[in-house]
Amino acid sequence: MRYHDLNKSNTVLIVTDFIVAFTVFALGLSLTEEYYSVSLPNIGESLYFVQLFLFSCTLQLATLAVGLYNEKLRATNKGIAIRIMVAIGLAYIMSSFIYLFIPVSSFPLLVCELLYLLAAAGLLVSRHIARSTDYTNFNRRRVVVLGAGERASLINSCMKRRADRVNFDLVGYIPINGDSRDITSTVPRVEIMTSLDDYITDNNIDEIIIGADERRGNLPTDMLFNCKLKGVLITDIIDFIERETGQVAVSHINPSWVIYNVKPSGNIVERLSGWMFNCIISSFVLLLTWPLIIIATLFIKIEDGVFSPVLYSQKRVGRQGKVFSIYKFRSMKVNAEENGAQMSFKSDKRITKVGAFLRKYRIDELPQLYNVIKGDMSFVGPRPERPEFCQQFDGSIPYYSQRHDVKPGLTGWAQLKYPYGDSLDDATEKLKFDLYYIKHRSFMLDVLILIRTSEIILFGKGR
């Protein structure tokens, strides 16, 4: 089973990175001890474990932040090396910042630097070994799909790339009565000459995906029960896609899904604590980014003139359909919407040169910290859309209004999982991820999204 993006493959990397951190820490201390008059902590001392914990945690948080625990990451060896060096830099900055606020003595001059250089070398070696040995095999399961019709074809439509299937080997589709007959994408077809449970045992199947178009009277319930008793996982195809892709198949769910899976709003204590958490994070981000805010203001003025507006506001739809004003750095020409509301697209000529840079690294979103503090938005949630487009999408996309069950956010699950899009199809795809977030939202998921948003900002994956 998976917890969002955590599985056996990720666990292997996490454990391996901790071993690298522990080895580097012990080796670095032993190499530098004789060159310093101060005494360094020895194994068994509490100070040793405190410093090891800080060193390992900052290193692994930074590794997570740059996407190195993403098994579906498509990057060359050079790209992996760059991410490792960025992670080392982030970890070094975080550890230096932490030492300013905790009553633990830091390492002598150059010792800390040596530790992170050794960590960089260790991570380069461990990632090279992991990639060359195809570490994802630790988590691969042999699966068959019971059904070969329209519902079963969701696997091919939602998981087209090889990277989407790193966790399983699809043995094939087993046709049953009631399947749509004009589906050609559900291949290879599996013809069972024996009973289903014998086939499952003989072919070492780990999981059966129920993808039948018509279940009533067509599912071999007794055989499925026998497979269940033998330890085979039985999973509905909607749940399988949700687990493997982090999205909900919008076009194949029914109203009962909303009834049973959308969490109700929390009580006043939960809402208040959530607002306080968002205010604290907003204040912290504002403290770190105020120089960027000043620089962005100056460059907008330089490009468009001293008297040009720096900020602009737009009406957006928030929780429960409430309309509010969102604030952003202006990234388009002053008269960008003189002909009415238009969706922005990737090569939009209305975007200024400074605006393109601000969008790429999400700097244009910083004024929305005010919206977070005000309570209109959260740090994590579905991105708020304009009322004009919400009306259009609500009439065309099933369950689109459900994304308004929670506060909109500065960043979200859809922003991590789906590239920037400007069409109705893109809105549908992003809704699949928004519904996944609404179903699974929790404090830990919000923290995961916040950490992984760093990858979008650092590597310019914003719009």
UniProtKB/TrEMBL annotation:
GO terms for cellular component: membrane. The chain crosses the membrane at residues 12-32, 47-68, 80-101, 107-125, 275-300. The keyword Transmembrane helix applies. It comes from Photobacterium proteolyticum. It holds the Pfam family Bac_transf. It is found in: Membrane. Keywords: Membrane, Transferase, Transmembrane, Transmembrane helix. It is a multi-pass membrane protein. InterPro entries: Bact_transf, EPS_sugar_tfrase, Sugar_tfrase_EpsB_2. The lineage of its organism: Bacteria, Pseudomonadati, Pseudomonadota, Gammaproteobacteria, Vibrionales. Belongs to the bacterial sugar transferase family. It comes from the Bacteria. Residues 276-458 form the Bacterial sugar transferase domain. One of its GO terms (molecular function) is phosphotransferase activity, for other substituted phosphate groups. This is Sugar transferase. Its main location: membrane.
